[in-house]
Specification:
The model has no long low-confidence stretch (mean pLDDT about 85). It is flat, with a radius of gyration of 24 Å. A hairpin with a 4-residue loop joins strand 1 and strand 2. Helices cover about 50% and strands about 5% of the residues. The longest helix is centred in the middle third of the chain and has 20 residues. The chain has a domain of about 80 residues: DNA polymerase, domain 1 (Orthogonal Bundle), CATH 1.10.150.130. It contains 13 helices and 6 strands.
Amino acid sequence: MRLRECAAERHFSPRTTDAYARWVRSYIKFHDCQHPSTLGVDEVGAFVRYLAHERRFAPSTQNQALAALRFLYADVLAQPLPDSDGSPPTALPQRLPTVLSRVEAHRLLDAMHGVPQLMARLLYGAGLRLQECCQLRLRDINLERAEITVRRGHGQRAHVTIIPGSLRAAIEGQMAVSTRIRQRRLATGGGAVLLPSAMSGRLSSASRHAAWWWLFPSSREYQRPDALVRCSHHAHPTVLQRAVAAAAQRVGLDQRARCHTFRHSFAMHLLETGYDIRTVQLLLGHRDVYTTMRYLPLVQRVALGGLAVRSPLDVDPLSQRDR
């Protein structure tokens, strides 16, 4: 319980909180249910090495477990681990992002339909992350300025991105459909939404305000355990994930396409078109331009292919004279 309270103070997402709670439980079970305050650096190192060598978890999974334990000791138990705790973060392999060509992206989008298709078009057309798209509210859409405001993006950072002109009518229609769903649920005593943690205590009446309503509401309501109120959640991410996976299988893509692949493709295609990296950084909401620079090797690869660079192997040695 204390862990969840500390996670809420740090504004962790529910998924991060749940993942950290699972790792803490696994850590306690690994050490025969001893209280973590009686354990220390050596025990943390032993647990992470167990994950790496016996369970053979991926480096990213090992790092997540280590981050959960550091959070446990620093924020929950107020016993911070030393910087060198015997279990340094595992070095992640440097991989280039997977991107689709323009033709592949449009083939994949055309194979989808309904609300998932609109959501996938936003991932590609605006460079949104999966959660950012699912959590859009009506107040985040500005059709006049053709802007989408992402208020709680990765790392709780806010940024503004574009609304593709080809999606303006579709988004306007989705806003009208979403508003009708809200009105029907309000008429039956529901229609409330979960507010950001900073507002939930101060503006409880705003939970039924139109501005806070989801652009992509879930198909069903749920009962809040702490109040006799029926609330509506946003569309679950798995709805879009499954739709993208099914469409990729139908069109027979050679490479694996996920929801985040659309975001990579958005950045790559903007850079190919000639937009500067600073503009792409702002649209993606990256804190540091070095994060955006990981797309540059891909642009360079395309450029080299387009410049018709000839390999030395393709040059006839008899046609070259020594100088």
